[in-house]
Amino acid sequence: MKYFVLAQDFELWDIIEECYIEAPKKKKKQMSENDMKAKLNSSAMDILLCGLNEEVSKKVSTCKRAKEMWEKLERLYGK
Hints:
Elements: H1 2-8, H2 10-18, H3 33-50, H4 54-60, H5 66-77
Helix pairs in contact: 1-2, 2-3, 2-5
């Protein structure tokens, strides 16, 4: 899974490992660094969910961050 995410975008894996701040509240013409990280977090979560079957997906779909989702998957399946 790690290499699949890395193949999509190196920054996505950083989001999974390091976390992100919060989703943007206001729309701006130019994306801030936080907005970009929130977007990357959403992409990383989507990629992780795509690789899971329905049963496992239900177990991690309540997570708010890709890092949280990855840590839950590690607890379920080990490293």
